[in-house]
């Protein structure tokens, strides 16, 4: 069940989504700051991605784990992951499992990252192009 409500301010949203994890708040602030540059077609910028995380029921440690451990603190990759879910290329269960994985066992292979990147960039022509290859 989503935690964000219409009357919440941005500070409220960051507090709710961060769930007491300062690393998660840092990830969310960076997402808000960089989302428009990475994905200019996203109508609400970083806030849309935060709403996605709420819809996925990923909070606090899960947000930090996705951004830090699964995406290597790369905001483009974080946006790619969430856009991939929005566009139906990743299942909800996969992203939730990645977020909840404390043993670093559940992730995307370099080939899966590349495939996701190709699909998202083909569908969203203004999505920032990769600067690197996905290496193991």
Characterise this structure.
It is a single chain. By secondary structure, this protein is mainly α. It is globular and about 35 Å long. It contains 7 helices and no strands. The longest helix is centred in the N-terminal third of the chain and has 17 residues, at 22-38. The chain has one domain.
Keywords, please?
mainly alpha, 136 residues, globular, single chain
Oligomer, anyone?
single chain
> What is the β-strand count?
0
Largest beta sheet, briefly?
none
Shape annotation: globular
The number of helical segments is: 7
| Low-confidence regions | none
Helix and strand run: HHHHHHH
What's the topology here?
Elements: H1 10-18, H2 22-38, H3 46-55, H4 60-70, H5 75-86, H6 92-100, H7 110-123
Helix pairs in contact: 1-2, 2-3, 2-4, 2-5, 4-6, 5-7
């Amino acid at each position: 069940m989503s935690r964000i409500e219409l009357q919440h301010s941005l500070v409220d949203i960051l507090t709710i989504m961060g769930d007491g994890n300062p690393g998660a708040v840092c990830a969310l602030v960076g997402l808000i700051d960089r989302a428009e540059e990475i994905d200019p077609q996203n109508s609400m910028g970083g806030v849309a991605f935060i709403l996605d995380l709420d819809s996925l029921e990923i909070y606090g440690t899960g947000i930090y784990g996705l951004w830090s451990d699964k995406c290597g603190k790369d905001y483009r990759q974080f946006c790619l992951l969430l856009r991939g879910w929005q566009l139906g290329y990743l299942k909800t269960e996969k992203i939730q499992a990645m977020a909840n994985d404390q043993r670093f066992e559940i992730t995307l292979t370099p080939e899966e990252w590349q495939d996701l990147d190709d699909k998202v960039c083909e569908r969203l022509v203004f999505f920032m192009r990769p600067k690197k290859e996905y290496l193991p």
